[in-house]
Design brief:
Layout: E1 5-8, H1 13-21, E2 34-37, E3 42-49, E4 52-60, E5 62-63, E6 70-71, E7 73-75, H2 83-91, E8 93-98, E9 100-104, E10 110-114, E11 121-130, E12 133-142, E13 153-155, E14 157-158, H3 163-168, H4 170-176, E15 185-188
Parallel strand pairs: 4-12, 7-12
Antiparallel strand pairs: 1-2, 1-9, 3-4, 5-6, 8-11, 9-10, 10-15, 11-12, 11-14, 12-13
Length: 203
């Protein structure tokens, strides 16, 4: 599951594409530069239009079946079977850039999960329009061995080398749905110093 994730609060949309393409160096991670993204909030995603990768600002979460309910994750194992996600998987794949994502362990400690060798963590997502408004969800998969001690689900994390194929090649994207994901490292977040503004502190 992925119900919150971290993002740089000072990265411009056009710079996200250059970072994803590897044409500029990645920014350094620091507590002051990070903010927390929650479901229903607007956040940057990457989409492909005629083979060109473009950034968009889109609201996180599909409207659910019961009014105020919001669906913010989609299981990668069953996305092809679910009417809500099937069309988006075929023609609405996106990439959700982040610093990392949050999860809580059984002792209710908050962890930030990220890649050890990269400032950015790219998550596979789906987007579609509801009443003319674009919205996105994050695909999840079974937790790998670096995540399973915290939670049994995790976002489907894409290597930066696979972003173009995920966005532009449906057959490659479908194969990646069964991926076990990339190895992650975790930091425990000090929630006593975790204000609503999103600035983070770590233990």
């Amino acid at each position: 599951m992925c119900g919150r994730y971290a993002y740089f609060n000072d990265i411009e949309l056009k710079e996200i594409v250059r970072i994803a393409e590897g044409s500029v160096s990645e920014p350094e991670i620091s507590e002051a530069r990070m903010m927390e993204i929650r479901p229903t909030e607007v956040a940057p995603i990457l989409v492909a239009e005629k083979g060109i990768v473009l950034p968009k600002l889109v609201s996180w979460g599909f409207p659910g079946f019961h009014g105020s309910e919001v669906i913010f994750n989609a299981r990668s194992e069953t996305a092809q079977e679910k009417p809500m996600f099937r069309t988006a998987l075929a023609g609405g794949r996106c990439v959700v850039p982040s610093v990392g994502f949050y999860e809580w362990d059984k002792e209710k400690r908050k962890h930030l999960l990220r890649l050890s060798d990269s400032s950015f963590l790219f998550m596979a997502g789906l987007f579609r329009f509801f009443k003319g408004v674009p919205k996105f969800v994050i695909l999840t998969t079974a937790a790998n061995e670096t995540m399973s001690h915290i939670h049994d689900r995790m976002p489907l994390v894409l290597p930066s080398s696979e972003l173009h194929d995920w966005l532009n090649d449906e057959s490659s994207a479908l194969k990646y749905l069964s991926s076990s994901g990339l190895p992650l490292v975790s930091q425990i977040v000090d929630v006593s110093k975790d204000p609503k503004s999103g600035q983070l502190s770590f233990l």
